[in-house]
Amino acid sequence: MSDELRPLADGDAGWLADLHNRAFADYPLPAVLDASSLAFYMDETDVRPDLSFAIHVDGVPASFCLGAIRGRRGSIRGEGTDPRLRRRGLGDRVLTATLGALRDAGADEVGLEVLDANQAARNLYDRRGFEARRRLLGYTVHRPPRLSMLERRRLRLADVDTDDAVAALREWGWDDPPWQLQAESVAHLPAQMLGGDAVVFGRRRGRRFWLYALAVDPSRRGAGLGRAAVAALGAEWIAVPALVPDEWAAAHAFLRAIGAAPDALSQWEMRRDLRTIDKS
After folding, report:
1. Global confidence as pTM
2. Could you read off the pLDDT of 112-147 as tens digits, one per residue?
3. Which of 72, 149, 269, 272 is least enclosed, having the fewest CB within 10 Å?
């Protein structure tokens, strides 16, 4: 059995999506992506093929690790191994190669998120010098708030230019978000504003909505505009991905106030200093 470690290249999304889906088939939270969805995710989170690696065993893709960089910070945006080829050190090898590439590209530190229930991955990251920084929680709103008929006439969300929405998010405060909630990431999502007082970023699929970011002008807080913005979505079901830092007390209080229930699965955000990697 022969294997080859090599960086990704543009145009690899097809076979990479297939490997991704095999790697995550038995995951506590299965994720299925087609080539276009994976390519969008990689673009959204600034994954660079030259900083990402895969191992091919006997010519077949077997393990991968996705590396992204913004300024002096790097991020592991996904890692997985075909279940049939686990416990052979393939995941360790692609991770080590990606960490070295991120360091050489100028990153001083690297972060990642890992499900609390994925003990095997957490053990790998522990061995490679990552330290748990904070928990990231998710929520589901099974019965979103509703607007009255009078409110529906005056409280309407309007599509807004992404640059304007991101500027509002930055101005109104978005304190140390995890990688996928950073302004550079949510800038790839559809955005809407409630008047000039609240901004919402997320994805809609039919009557369901995945809410990634919501911010209200500080001068207008306490007036129920966050709740009104959620109600104005008109969604039957709202999911908040497990990306809300545990120290965001105001966010958790708001979500509970609109009837959100915490999800059973949470993540750990982990980080390590890349300056300690041996460059020899």
Report:
1. 0.92
2. 999 998 998 999 999 999 999 999 999 999 999 987
3. 149
Residue 127 within any structural domain of the chain: no
Is the pLDDT at 272 greater than 90? The verdict is yes
- Flag whether 273 is in a domain: no
243 φ, ψ (degrees, to nearest 5): -135, 5
Kindly report, residue by residue over 40-49, the tens digit of the pLDDT: 999 999 999 9
In the chain, % of residues over pLDDT 70: 98
Residues in contact with 87: Cβ distance below 8 Å, sequence separation at least 6, in sequence order: none
Q: Which domain does 249 fall in, by range?
A: 138-262
pLDDT higher than threshold 80 for residue 152: no
Domain co-membership, 167 together with 252: yes
CATH number of the domain where residue 183 is located: 3.40.630.30
CB 127 within 8 A of CB 236: no
